[in-house]
Amino acid sequence: MKPSAPITQDVMTFPRKLETTGKINLVGLSRDGMRQALIESGTPEKQAKMRTGQIWQWIYQWGVRDFDKMTNLSKAFRAQLEESFEIRIPEVVSKQVSTDGTRKYLVRINGGHEVEVVYIPEENRGTLCISSQVGCTLTCSFCHTGTQKLVRNLTADEIVGQVMMARDDLDEWPKSGTVTGAPRLLSNIVLMGMGEPLYNFENVRDAMKIVMDPEGIQLGRRRITLSTSGIVPEIHRTAEEIGCLLAVSFHATNDETRDILVPINKKWNIEALLEALREYPKVSNSERITFEYVMLHGVNDTDEDAHRLVELLEGIPAKVNLIPFNEWPGSAYKRSSNNRIRAFSSILMNAGYASPIRATRGEDIMAACGQLKSATERERKSRKQIEAEAARR
Ligand code: SAH
Ligand code: SF4
Q1: What's the pTM value of the predicted model, to 2 decimals?
Q2: Ligand 1: which residue has its CA nearest to atom 7?
Q3: How far, in Å, from the CA of 227 to the mean position of ligand 1?
Q4: Nearest C-alpha neighbor of 133 from the set 193, 93, 91
Q5: Which positions are catalytic?
């Protein structure tokens, strides 16, 4: 095992307050939804479309959360908005910064549940890894999130709110009058945090539509990658209704092994999954599908596996991301050696597939792939352990 880097450089804790205001949150509503909400609260129907456009820009283009700062709206209208609506995003509970610059946020959503969001800075770009569920109903045997019981699906506002929260923290809302040609700090989004996004399809779709909207955050559909464990019936819809890039947690080259690593394989096996994937690039008019492959020592990492993978990929525009297994407390697997991972990668490369080895980021703060699990859950576990220890005494 790699020695871990020094623990956390910087931990900020914010006041924990959660109020129920009884107001409607404008964040997460589609343009149509916002228009309807405005009409219902008394905005004349004729004006509603224009007002929606104005409020939309304030929220998603300028990052404004205070109605009073929406200076192209009349004072009376601003007061009316204040009465019926709020602009609320998840609250940051804590932020940790890794020695490599990776930031991990713990954010509190409605009802007090918490999810993790990770920002990974790279040269000339930055990727935000967002969550779609609290925990996960699936139980992939190598994944830490999979050991956490699902509490619930995130709503669209809680999903787009993670992106807004990160832009706040990066101080990346445009300032009026300044035009910069610098690359964006938050330039890409991956739905690879906690949860299975395709088991929360509508909310994920609605949130991504807002993120892609040209009059707001403006991230193109090719800057968003959705990762799924293989929920076959939703793959076609993802292509049609979101059109983002797709990554699939493949991880094994025969059903016997995949049944254990990714148990949803018992419902939709490798053949069914590959069939759905073959259609994806055509429907979404996108390039390659990313096959994620976690490297587990002695489980799925032989040369034979690599050759079998090449055969399976035949006819699919693909790249393979090899992910060195990230260990977590109590995990049953070991990471393949670097030599093994390189050998595996060169078989794929010789067959013409790009097969980068994913750099592990933020490991010292447990922010790496598959290590996410909400802190409340960890606390609960450790409390249980403490009680058990006390009982033994
Ligand atoms: N539920 C979705 C997205 C979240 S997981 C999915 O399964 O695709 C994001 C990626 O991290 C997936 O490829 C997942 O298989 C991988 N992963 C999970 N646990 C891991 C671990 N401990 N080490 C390395 N990668 C892991
Ligand atoms: Fe859920 Fe993805 Fe983890 Fe599997 S790998 S348990 S689908 S989060």
Answers
A1: 0.89
A2: 229
A3: 8
A4: 193
A5: 116, 369
